[in-house]
Amino acid sequence: xxxxxxxxxxxxxxxxxxxxxxxxxxxxxxxxxxxxxxxxxxxxxxxxxxxxxxxxxxxxxxxxxxxxxxxxxxxxxxxxxxxxxxxxxxxxxxxxxxxxxxxxxxxxxxxxxxxxxxxxxxxxxxxxxxxxxxxxxxxxxxxxxxxxxxxxxxxxxxxxxxxxxxxxxxxxxxxxxxxxxxxxxxxxxxxxxxxxxxxxxxxxxxxxxxxxxxxxxxxxxxxxxxxxxxxxxxxxxxxxxxxxxxxxxxxxxxxxxxxxxxxxxxxxxxxxxxxxxxxxxxxxxxxxxxxxxxxxxxxxxxxxxxxxxxxxxxxxxxxxxxxxxxxxxxxxxxxxxxxxxxxxxxxxxxxxxxxxxxxxxxxxxxxxxxxxxxxxxxxxxxxxxxxxxxxxxxxxxxxxxxxxxxxxx
Length: 409
What we know:
By secondary structure, this protein is mainly alpha-helical. It is built from 17 helices and no strands.
C-alpha cells in the first residue's frame, strides 16, 4: 500500500505539472518540482540529524523505565482486564502477558519493542485459534486495541515538534490523551457489540470507569478555563506529568539497584541508531509529498475540500491537517511525513501544525498493523477486524479535530 501511495504522489505531481505547463502556460512548474526534490531531501537529512540528540535522550529515559520494571508493573496491573475481555484465553496463558506488554510498550512510546511484542502476542493467540486461517475474536480485539493507538507518552511527536521549533513541544499532550481515549473506547465498543463482550463485568467496569474518570476530570477542569488559561495549564500539567514519569523511572531504578546511567546510555545508543535508520524513509516520503505540493496538486485538493466545508458553513482550518488524517490508517511513516510537512509549511505552533500532531497521536496505522500481525500468523479471513479498526480511526480523528479547536482554535 505504501508503495502505491508513494508512486501516486510522483505520478499525480507529473500529470498536474504537465497540465500547468501546456494548458495554463506555467513555465516554472518543473523547476519548482526539481527545487522541491533537492530542498526537501536536504531538509529530511537535517531533521533526522537534529532528532539524534532528542531521540537519544528519550530512548535513554525509556530504557531506564524498562529496566526498572515499569512495563512489568503495568503488565501485572492490566492482566485482570484482558483476561475478562478475552474469555477464550485461559488464565496464565503466555498470550495475556505478551498482549499487555505490547499495549504497555505502545502506550509508553516504545515503538521498537511494541512491534515484536505484538507479533509474539498474535502468535500466542494463534495457538488457541481453532481456525488457523480465520481471525479469532481475541485476535480481532487485540488488533483493534492496537490500532486505536492508546498513547500516554508520544515521544516521537514531542521530538519532531521540538526539532521544528515549537515553543512548548509537549503542549499537545493532553489533547492527544483525550483523542486517543475516544479512539480506544469507540474501537472497544465496536468489537464488544459484534462479539457480545460483557462490558458490565465488575472488573471491566472498574478499569474502564477509572480511565473514564481520569479523562472526564481533565475535560471538566479544562472546560472551566478560558482558552488562554487552557493553553498555559495544558503545558504546565503536561510537563509536570512527563517529568514526574522520568523521576519515577529513576526512583524505580534506584529501588531495584539498577545502574540508571548505564541503562540510559544503552537506550541513548538505540536513539542514535534510530535517527540514522529513519533518514532514507524520511527522505523518500518528504520528497514525494514535496513534489506533490510543488505541483499544485495538494493545494488543489485542499481548496476543493475547503469549498465543500465552507458550503455547509463550517470552519475550514482543519483542512490543512487533513492529509495526516487521511494517511494515518495506511502508513505511519507517511502520516509522520505529512505531519512534518504541515509543521514546516504552516509552523509547528500554528493551528494546523498542532492539529496534525494531535491527529498523528490519536490513532495507529490500521492497515499496516493488520497486514503485519495477521500476516505473521497466516490469517486470510479477517472478519470484522478492518471495520472495527476503521471505526476506531475515524473516531480518533474526529475527536482530534474537536479537541484541537477546543484547545488551540
